[in-house]
Design a protein that fits this description.
The chain is of the alpha+beta class. The chain has one domain: Beta-Lactamase (2-Layer Sandwich), CATH 3.30.450. The protein is built from 7 helices and 6 strands, in the order ααααααββαββββ. The longest helix is centred in the N-terminal third of the chain and has 23 residues, at about 20-45.
Length: about 200
Amino acid sequence: MMIRTLIASVAAIAIFAGLPTTSLAQDYKVAVANLIDSEIRGWSQSDEVIDAVRKQNEMSASLSQDDVDNQDKKWRAETKGGSQNMINAVLSNSLSNYLKSVKTNSQGKYTEIFVMDMKGLNVGQSDITSDYWQGDEAKWKQSYGAGPDGVLIDEVEFDESTQTYQSQVSVAIVDPSTHKAIGAVTVGVNVEMLE
């Protein structure tokens, strides 16, 4: 049974019967946790990801919060039109090309993928994000910020742009040589594609 059908069925029964829907939440979270273990941890710990995050961390280490805020402002301005030099530089880098390939090969299971560095700045992404700095958001704080085992499985929401029910899943990226978190990845997971 597809997760979407399961969600709709359980939600309808629970609401009609006046029952709590906590078991529903656990069902999709179990399926997503299985996806993290069976797929996401594998490709997100690839040499392509680790090398790109290490390289950007070397450049980001000396950035002040003002530097980060200025880069984020520039990115946000570019999303509104005009020159998109900063966005294009990230979207055309080798990590972004790798992430686009992972997304394509998922055959609709992943709606977006973006990798962040130790400051929460985008390193690579499959699609344009609304902002460049994720470091003030739970997706970065509860993955990278929680250490090498950090994971956040967000609530399922309907995404208007993709017309799918999705959960954003964030996982710490771990340097295999130090076993420390060096960044994080966020993946939009189309829960309708999970079994």
